[in-house]
Amino acid sequence: MALQRLPLRLRPLNAHTKKLPIPHVQLQQRRAASTVSEPPPSSQESIPAPPTQTPTSSSAPISDPIIASELGISSHTIPGPSPSQIATYAARLLRPNKPKLPPSRYCFRPPKYYRGPLHPHQPPPPSSPSSRLYIPGPFSLSRLAQTYSATLAPDLMTLQYVHVSPLPHTKSPPPERLRPWVGDSPYFANRPLRAPRGAPALPLMAKPITFANVPQINRITVSAIVREQDNSAYLHVAGMVVQAMTGVRARVSIAKKSQAMGRVNFNQRAGKPIAVTCDLRGEGMWHFLSTLVEVVGPGIKEWRGLKGGSGDGSGNLGVGFGREVVGAWPEIGVNYDA
Question: Is 132:123 a contact under the CB 8 Å cutoff?
Answer without folding.
Answer: yes
